[in-house]
């Protein structure tokens, strides 16, 4: 029995989406060339993946001067947000605090990362003082087990 399609892209599909997010609408050869900078991948494999991703509603194609031009149909924030929520729910019991603690404990944060995080927290704090936001409700996991981080 075939497994149902995932609501989240595979690693290889995410690589293609990153190319399309960064480069914008691109021809098959351009997508394959960008992927080949990281690892060897056949153009036919990329074409097959783009076809599957079209069926999943993640990319779309339009006629271009030399063939199809492919573009992302889903946004970076929507996609990465879903992946992050899935990771947080599955690996950290819905706790953003545990996720961040793991990054700190693993010394995975550069000085630049830390500065960005502090800046985001300051901006969020100012926003909270200004009034309630629906962002907080959207980003909290329903499986946080009563724990708020």
Explain this structure.
- The structure is a single chain.
- This protein is mainly α and 149 residues long.
- 59% of the residues lie in helices and 9% in strands.
- It has 2 domains: 11-72, Arc Repressor Mutant, subunit A (Orthogonal Bundle), CATH 1.10.10.10; 92-139, no CATH class.
- The protein has a 3-stranded antiparallel sheet with strand order 1-3-2.
- The longest helix has 20 residues, at 111-130.
Globular, elongated, flat, extended or rod-shaped: what is the shape?
A: elongated
Second rung of CATH, namely the architecture of the largest domain: Orthogonal Bundle
CATH class of the largest domain: Mainly Alpha
Work out the number of β strands: 3
Spatial gap, N to C terminus: 40 Å
As residue ranges, the low-confidence spans are 138-149
What does the radius of gyration come to? 19 Å
Mean pLDDT: 86
By CATH, the superfamily of the largest domain comes out as Winged helix-like DNA-binding domain superfamily/Winged helix DNA-binding domain
Strand order of the largest sheet: 1-3-2
Order of helices and strands: HEHHEEHHHH
The total domain count is 2
Helix share of residues? 55-70%
Number of helices: 7
Largest sheet properties: 3 strands, antiparallel
CATH topology label of the largest domain: Arc Repressor Mutant, subunit A
Q: How does the helix and strand content classify structurally?
A: mainly alpha
Strand residues, percent = 5-15%
């Amino acid at each position: 029995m075939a497994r149902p399609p995932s609501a989240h892209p595979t690693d290889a599909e995410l690589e293609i989406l990153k190319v399309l997010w960064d480069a914008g609408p691109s021809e098959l050869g351009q997508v394959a060339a960008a992927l080949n900078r990281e690892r060897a991948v056949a153009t036919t494999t990329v074409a097959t993946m783009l076809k599957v991703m079209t069926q999943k509603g993640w990319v779309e194609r339009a006629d271009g001067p030399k063939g199809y031009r492919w573009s992302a149909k889903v946004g970076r924030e929507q996609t990465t947000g879903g992946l992050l929520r899935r990771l947080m729910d599955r690996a950290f019991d819905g706790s953003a605090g545990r996720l961040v603690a793991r990054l700190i404990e693993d010394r995975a944060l550069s000085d630049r990362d830390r500065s960005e995080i502090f800046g985001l927290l300051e901006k969020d704090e100012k926003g909270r003082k200004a009034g309630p936001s629906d962002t907080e409700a959207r980003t909290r996991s329903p499986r946080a087990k009563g724990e708020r981080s």
